[in-house]
């Protein structure tokens, strides 16, 4: 559907007495605070879909008993991303060209790039906003569970009662952050063996940013009169993800992770 930009909608633009025309007075938030480069591994693709599959870890070598044993290796879960396409255009009435309103037209053409950037960032935040829901539409997972889930499984058949859960509902405070940090350091691979994880990143909506900075920046006596050291000081990089504030029921979530 065409929505032409007509001169009748901008009569003042053609008034010779107008000294200056302002276009896009405010800087766009998503252009100034792009988070996709910080939080995603951005790759180029010339395919309509991108698919990922993996091979699991090799188990411990057993004691030699006269026969060299073969070790089982299991596949990991398959994932697929099918990129969507987005397209738009600007349609100008010819009068803008005839009256040489080129600066206005060029400014709006640049606005298309800003719009594309904004859409990209809004899509990027969905990975975190819907991390607890399996109804997301940006990834097809063979496991069939949400990214953050307390029931993750594995194809090797080992117990997943501990070391596999990566979801929780604790409020953001020094105790829950420390507990989550320790929980992540106990993560296991597909055969139930401990892996090396060093959580060093907190992603928070803007309304939790001050609390995160306080937990990460207070050197002594955090919520304590004894003046004990704060072992979490400087442990994390804090990312205040303001777009999380705009999504319903997501403004009280925080995400603890590892920054590569």
Question: What key phrases describe this protein's structure?
Answer:
260 residues; alpha+beta; three-stranded antiparallel beta sheet; three-stranded mixed beta sheet; 6 helices; 7% strand; flat
Radius of gyration using CA atoms only: 26 Å
Euclidean distance between termini CA atoms:
44 Å
- Provide the domain count: 2
> Which outline best applies?
flat
State the order of secondary-structure elements, H for helix, E for strand.
HHEEHHEHEHEE
- Strand tally is 6
Proportion of strand residues: 5-15%
Summed up, the helix count is: 6
Average pLDDT level:
84
Percent range for helical residues? 10-25%
Strand order of the largest sheet: 1-2-3
Which ranges are low-confidence, i.e. pLDDT below 50, for 5 or more consecutive residues? 17-22
Please characterize this protein's 3D structure.
The strands form two sheets. The chain has a three-stranded antiparallel sheet with strand order 1-2-3, with no helix packed on it. A three-stranded mixed sheet has the order 5-4-6, with helices on one face. The protein has 260 residues and is an alpha+beta fold. The chain has two domains: 7-58 and 71-129, no CATH class; 152-257, no CATH class. The protein has six helices and six strands; from the N terminus they run H-H-E-E-H-H-E-H-E-H-E-E. Helix 6 (209-217) links the parallel strand 4 (201-204) and strand 5 (237-240).
Chart the SSEs and their pairings:
Layout: H1 29-32, H2 36-39, E1 50-52, E2 79-81, H3 94-98, H4 102-129, E3 140-141, H5 174-185, E4 201-204, H6 209-217, E5 237-240, E6 255-257
């Amino acid at each position: 559907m065409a929505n032409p930009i007509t001169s009748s909608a901008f009569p003042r633009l053609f008034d010779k007495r107008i000294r200056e025309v302002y276009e896009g007075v405010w800087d766009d938030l998503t252009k100034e605070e792009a988070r996709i480069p910080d939080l995603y591994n951005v790759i180029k693709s010339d395919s309509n879909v991108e698919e990922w599959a993996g091979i699991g870890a090799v188990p411990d070598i057993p004691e030699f008993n006269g026969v060299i044993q073969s070790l089982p290796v299991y596949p990991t879960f398959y994932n697929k991303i099918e990129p969507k396409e987005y397209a738009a255009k600007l349609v100008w009435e010819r009068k803008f060209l005839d009256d040489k309103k080129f600066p206005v037209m060029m400014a709006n053409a640049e606005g298309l790039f800003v719009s594309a950037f904004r859409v990209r960032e809004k899509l990027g935040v969905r990975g975190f906003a819907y991390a607890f829901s399996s109804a997301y539409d940006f990834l097809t997972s063979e496991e069939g569970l949400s990214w953050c889930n307390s029931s993750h499984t594995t194809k090797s058949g080992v117990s997943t009662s501990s070391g596999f859960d990566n979801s929780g509902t604790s409020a953001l405070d020094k105790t829950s952050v420390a507990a989550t940090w320790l929980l992540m350091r106990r993560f296991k691979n597909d055969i139930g063996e401990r892996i090396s994880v060093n959580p060093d990143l907190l992603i928070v909506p803007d309304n939790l940013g001050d609390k995160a900075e306080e937990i990460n920046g207070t050197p002594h006596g955090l919520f304590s009169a004894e003046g004990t050291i704060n072992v979490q000081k400087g442990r994390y990089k804090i990312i205040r993800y303001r777009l999380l504030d705009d999504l319903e029921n997501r403004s009280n979530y925080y995400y603890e992770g590892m920054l590569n």
